[in-house]
Records
---
Amino acid sequence: MSSSKPPIRFCINNPRNLAERQDLIARGIPSKDCLGNCTACFEGRFLEIDDELVEGDSYQEILESVSKSE
């Protein structure tokens, strides 16, 4: 049985600066114009992973939590 990674994407408006946005793009994480989570987008960082909102203090923290759960 092969383990596939869950689909991950980010709201183009969520990164707080260009460096964060470029890092997510460099990791191959696709962006979407709006994921419809405006309150979460305003309050902190999040990624949509397997159609679920996953929040964290940084994108690195979120991605590490996903890789630990695989």
---
Amino acid sequence: MNEFRWTLQDGSGASLRASRAFASKEEAEAWMSTEWSELAAEGAVSVSLTHGDEVLYEMGLGEA
């Protein structure tokens, strides 16, 4: 089963950790919309959304 996960990266681009698995892209994006500030406080500067081994997109965690 291909699950959706966020991979958190620090300022140098190194992976910090992956999020829990989500059944859908929408669930993963909803989770990120509520958790991004906590993840930034943890040291994450950017995140990548993956589906299985495929990177769907990357984004920064700075405030808009």
---
Amino acid sequence: MSVAKIIELSAESPKSFEDAIQDGISRASKTIHGIKSAWVKEQHVVVDNGKVALYRVDLKVTFVLD
């Protein structure tokens, strides 16, 4: 029997939403083992002088406990 836990995290990138997702999962996997899935809860952009400066995502990450 396995038990999973869900955490929320935010990640951002100046390139794209997809890059923010990849960066968030990559960083989380350095300290969290057994990541099975992630759900994009929300997406936001930071605007500076009428242009998108940052793409930000809020993720729910599911991983199996040791």
---
Amino acid sequence: MEKFNEVLEKNFEKLEQYVPVVARVHGGSHPEFHDVKRVYEGLSLKIQEKDTKNLKEDFSALRDFTNNYTVPSDVCETYEAVYDMLKELDQSYTN
């Protein structure tokens, strides 16, 4: 859990900023990102409430919606950064 907390501290603020922007910019051409945003918001709420014991289902859903964090070829660097940060957070939680 120590690694997870480190990754969380490094990425959480950026994710909070980037996820809504990416949903607004790319949601039309990538509707799956709305699912990513919905799951992320639930995950974020749990993290803010210090309830990090049961995040496995959230990360599993993110892996499903993102095809294991595969970045689409027609998106911006911010979209890619969100997937990279979510993947890093996921791996630090599940390992």
